[in-house]
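Subject: Protein record for review, amino acid sequence with backbone structure tokens
Category: Structural biology, sequence-to-fold work with a learned token vocabulary.
Format: Residues in single-letter code; tokens as whole numbers, each standing for a residue.
Body of memo: The sequence and its backbone structure tokens, given next.
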Amino acid sequence: MKQSLYLLLPLFFAGFVVQEDNCSNTNAHQQPVQGSQFDGPYVLYLDKQLFVKYVYDDSGTRSIRVDSFPLAQKETLQLTVATDIPGKTFPVTLKKGLENEKTDFPDVKKMFVVSDIEGNFAAFRKLLQAQQIIDSSFNWAFGNGHLVLTGDFFDRGAQVTEVLWLIYSLEEKAKAAGGYVHFILGNHEIMNMSGDIRYVHPKYTDNALLMNEGYMNLFSEHSELGAWLRTKNIVEKVGPVLFVHGGISAEVNNSSLSAAKMNKLARPFYPDSSYNYKDNKVALLYSDLGPFWYRGYYTGKTLASQAQVDSTLDIYGVKYIATGHTVVADTISVRFNKKLFNTDVHHAKGHTEGLYYEEGRFYRATPFGEKFEIAD
């Protein structure tokens, strides 16, 4: 049986009076609350209980709602997630279970690629809807296509939680239609799991305090989003493209690591904050030369060469590489004889684009529904 808790604990915080209310209700998800949903839900696990925490805002007064359920009810729950449109929400059903992602996805004919959203839900939503990846109700509309997200969906922006839940919710919907959603981790996902929160929007550390939670607990292995993030990879091969947030350095080329081995080695250290790696190959993956930090394709003292890029293509058996991480233009850009695509653009400055691939052709795709072919 579900229990809902509103703790009556007024306090002054960041210039606001914050209230938590205390009541019990067996149908609280359908009950009115004061204000609008400001953050959440956060799903946390303790023993055999599941706790769902929301933050509401009523003219600057924040209230925290906590619903609790027996763990056995997990599959019957439907969460409500806010969007950038006032009053517009979408539902999320929790997954039955979580499994580590595989690395190789051959024979993909159609895909859409986005990176570095950084909590900008509006830009993400408008782009996906304009390109008919999702519909107006946030349902999957891309059929058997693959949506590839190449990292840095955390930090800086004020709707990170909403972005994560949208990705989470689309995964099962895509599979049901014969498609797939790939969420490849960037340095900001790793930073948030390992305690480096220097770029986190203040909203989130404030809300963690209001919920009486350490920020790190919101994305720990004892949370739904944290456990889900730990199943994701740092590199994947989808169709003819190697997807990686930062890039593949010459040192990684020379490490004799397959893409699958990189994912296997890196995954146990996502939440590690010691930075003390006994395995030299793990240390390489987490260094500035590793897949989610490397910037040598675009900047730095030692720039990548065409030979280095061609070596990567040969080692991993692909035709192209696609990265995010480093903004080099206001649009999708192409380098190294059109073998490398950069998908990082200034979303927050209104320069949102995605990379559209279909039947061997690549296009720049805009939030206005346009597609511009990237010619050979």
